[in-house]
Design brief:
By secondary structure, the chain is α/β, with parallel strands linked by helices. The chain has ten helices and six strands. The protein has two domains: 132 residues, HAD superfamily/HAD-like (Rossmann fold), CATH 3.40.50.1000; 69 residues, no CATH class. The protein has a six-stranded parallel sheet.
């Protein structure tokens, strides 16, 4: 018998919000702090930081950990104060609110993100009324977004994987790993480069496919 979806989870960056806020902090603000503190050219600071980002890589938790980078570069800055200064850069995709309002009438909604809670609290600030749970796999579970982390989330909220749908903009993290964990997974490809039953170009199409 086909299981009925009762819970729908969303990735955050690239799914609910654009990467504008994260890009600003990581690619502009942090290099400027390094430039000012170390008294080196901004271009040199960017080159050094970007090389270190690549060295660490997105498969390691440190890549997402702002306090780690502040400590690594000996920057005496409060991370919470820092990100709060730039929260106006958070930008929702245009269809998000309408889709959340529609889906919240039928499903329990939540967020499952690889972002640290430091960032996630800001990117989801204006959307919190729609979500029953907002989970950072790194901060809350100590895990990268993986098959194990999806299983851990299901256990945490008291549901079976087959009753949950998940959507995100990473083919590996949000589609492959969620599907492997038993969730009904969808891949959000806003550029429309891929086609498939569970590949969608925006959240409106996702809501239609889900229905």
């Amino acid at each position: 018998m086909k299981q009925k979806i009762t819970t729908v989870s969303f990735d955050a960056d690239g799914t609910l919000v654009t990467t504008a806020f994260a890009d600003l902090v990581w690619l502009e603000v942090l290099p400027q702090l390094v430039s000012d503190s170390w008294k080196i050219d901004l271009d040199d600071a960017k080159q050094k930081l970007y090389a270190d980002y690549e060295l660490i890589g997105p498969a390691r938790a440190e890549w997402y950990d702002l306090p780690y980078w502040l400590k690594r570069y000996r920057l005496e800055v409060n991370p919470k104060t820092l990100v709060q200064q730039y929260k106006s850069a958070v930008t929702l995709y245009p269809e998000v609110v309408d889709v959340l309002e529609k889906l919240s009438e039928k499903y329990e909604l939540m967020v499952i993100s690889n972002s640290s809670r430091l960032f996630l609290e800001i990117t989801t600030e204006n959307l919190k009324p729609y979500f029953r749970h907002i989970i950072s796999t790194l901060s809350d579970l100590g895990l990268m977004k993986s098959t194990d982390s999806y299983a851990a989330v299901c256990e945490r909220i008291g549901t079976m994987p087959g009753y949950m749908a998940h959507i995100g903009d990473s083919l590996e993290l949000d589609y492959v790993r969620a599907k492997r964990a038993g969730l009904k997974a969808f891949y959000l490809d806003r550029r429309g480069r891929r086609r498939g039953r569970y590949f969608v170009k925006d959240l409106k199409e996702f809501a239609m496919r889900l229905g």
